[in-house]
Amino acid sequence: MDIRVQEAPFDLGHEVEAFTDRQVNMGAVVTFTGITRDLPGAGMDRMEMEHYPGMTERALTKIAEDAMARWDLGDVLIIHRYGVLRPQDRIMMVGTASRHRAHAFEAAEFLMD
Predict the structure, then answer these.
(1) Alpha carbon 107 to chain centroid, angstroms
(2) Are 84 and 22 in contact (CB under 8 A)?
(3) Among 4, 5, 56, 13, which residue's Cα sits nearest to residue 31?
(4) What is the reported pLDDT for 70?
(5) Is the pTM of this model over 0.70?
(6) Which residues are bridge partners to 84 per DSSP?
(7) CA neighbours within 13 Å on the CB side: how many for 56?
(8) pLDDT, tens only, 78-102
(9) Helix 55-70 to helix 101-112 angle, to the nearest 10 degrees?
(10) pLDDT of residue 37
(11) What is the DSSP letter of 80?
(12) Which residues of the chain are under the pLDDT cut of 50?
C-alpha cells in the first residue's frame, strides 16, 4: 500500500509503470487519474487544495485499508495533490491490483469516491 499526499505534480506514466511492475501474481491492475477541470461558464483559472498533514494521510490510509478488507486486493496506490492546481492538472490517482479484474475495478471506484 502506497499513500502519498504531495504538492508536486506526478508523472502518470512512471507511476502506472512502477505500480504495475511491482505486482506479483495479480491478474488485473486498474488505475484512475483525476484531472482538475473548469466548469462551463465558471472561468476558473486555479483552485487551491489545503490539507492537514498527518490527518489527511491517516484518512486516506483508512480508506485504503477498508478497500483491502472488502476486496481481494494485492496492492493499492493513492496519490493526492494539494496546493495551487490549474485546469488540466492531475489532482489524484488511484491504483488497485487484484487477481480478479472485478475486484480491481470495484475497489478503484470505491477509492475514487
Answers:
(1) 11
(2) no
(3) 13
(4) 98
(5) yes
(6) 48
(7) 14
(8) 999 999 999 999 999 999 999 999 9
(9) 150
(10) 85
(11) E
(12) none
